[in-house]
Amino acid sequence: MRVMGVDPGLTRCGLGVVDSGRGREVLPVAVGVVRTPTDLDLAQRLLRISESAEEWMDRYRPDVVAVERVFAQHNVRTAMGTAQAGGVVALAAARRSIPVMFHTPSEVKAAVTGNGSAGKKQVTAMITRILELETAPKPADAADALALAVAHCWRAPMLARLAAAEAMAAAQKRRYEERLRAQAAARKAGGQ
CA spacing 20 to 30 A to 94: which of 168, 176, 177, 191? Predict the structure, then answer.
């Protein structure tokens, strides 16, 4: 499975692509950062991010795009910019019929470091080790994008099993409720 990880941001949007192998094996494919000038109009900044993401999707052909979910930030303006950048990337993927999965920062940190509150340096160090990179990806947005891709590779099988279990439980619940309705209808018909 090829995964494109995206650490969304207006000033720096990290992009990383990895291939999953057997077990927890993950191989690096590409990493980079899209930068937009702060003095550029918001719509133009989003357009640049979208165009770069589309170029990466067309070049690397990911099976899925993993985007960091905006969870909570103290600065509302930063949170809005992050959400908007993530949104244009998700839209670019949807136009290509590429599934998009969102992961919270703590899910990603827990997956790659074992600690959901790990710092950026720890995430970068672990990604460098996991992917056996000669040098650490810089800036941190690039490392975070790779971490998102790796976390998705490792979490996807579990998420698929959970979804299958939920679907099975829902189907069993429907059958049970249908049986109860049929029994109630039979009792009602027998009592008339």
Answer: 168
